[in-house]
Amino acid sequence: MSVRLTLATSAGLCIPETGVIGVFGVTPNFDLSTLPRDRVELILRHKPDFDHFDKLGWRVETESSERYATAVVALPRAKSAAQAVIWHALGQTDGPIFVDGLKSDGIDSILKAVRTKVGVFGPVSKAHGKLFWFNATQDLFDAWRPMQTTLDNGMVTTPGCFSAAGPDPASILLAESLPEKLGKRCADLGAGWGYLAAQILKREEVHVLHLVEADFSALECARQNVPAPRAQFHWADARSWEPEERLDAVIMNPPFHTGRAADPSLGKAFIVAAADALAPHGTLWLVANRHLPYETSIAAHFRDWQEITGNNRFKVLRATRPSRHRR
């Protein structure tokens, strides 16, 4: 797991000798070598992380499949998501819950909140983070039970989803900028909980819309928010997803953060994937924060492009004639 769990184990912390160990939310940079692989079940709902550990031979699920002797929670960035995963872990675990996270991701706040409910062991502090553990029943943390939020527009979101409080301004701007005609075959890369997809499907001309999303929870919300039979849902990494037929349009508001750090390479990879997915006549519609340097990538993979609208925060780019294909 993290350096903190390795340190705690070296100092005498004992993981139960029998039973399954549930591990929630780890990312590829976490060191799991201190745990017995044959007894570990990873619960991962982010497709790139799921695929990473699956390829390494770990047992990986999107939901807990059995009771755990103990559980390890890698703290997610959003506080509501952190509370939700701890609540889920408590419901599946008979022994101690270990919580590991960085200070920048709110570990101190979660530690303080847990201490108001039960006694806490640790913490072990190292590498700008902390590890602590505790024993409790799920009912003590019922206030942390994840609840879907119903927005004013009737759509639902869940804790930890991007822009869970409502449509983000960039997606609203993109939706308002789209033409009436997009083509029959379209995709929304990084579809989230489905706001953009719902706007796209107001066009009867669209025969099929692929919603491609790496966040399992967000995609579950999208299935509720976009019940149209023309919608097809893909739990997939948009950077490597390929449609069966080339597309007339790709619409996207790509992510640009890895954790808290800005990572424009994510959006650039989405641009490459869009070019590969589009038919020769296809069009990319992209919204991005004004400062993100996507124009060079677009120019490398599309013969024509332009900024069609924008403001001081966002820009909407339209690109045509994709110049690079995988197949």
Descriptive report:
By secondary structure, the chain is an alpha/beta fold. The chain folds into 2 domains: 3-144, Rossmann fold; 149-322, Rossmann fold, CATH 3.40.50. The chain contains 9 helices and 18 strands. The chain has helices at residues 3-10, 47-55, 79-92, 107-115, 169-177, 195-200, 216-225, 264-277, 295-301; strands spanning 21-24, 40-43, 60-61, 70-74, 97-102, 121-126, 129-134, 149-150, 156-157, 185-189, 208-213, 231-235, 247-252, 257-258, 261-262, 278-289, 302-310, 314-322.
What's the structural blueprint in terms of helices and strands?
Elements: H1 3-10, E1 21-24, E2 40-43, H2 47-55, E3 60-61, E4 70-74, H3 79-92, E5 97-102, H4 107-115, E6 121-126, E7 129-134, E8 149-150, E9 156-157, H5 169-177, E10 185-189, H6 195-200, E11 208-213, H7 216-225, E12 231-235, E13 247-252, E14 257-258, E15 261-262, H8 264-277, E16 278-289, H9 295-301, E17 302-310, E18 314-322
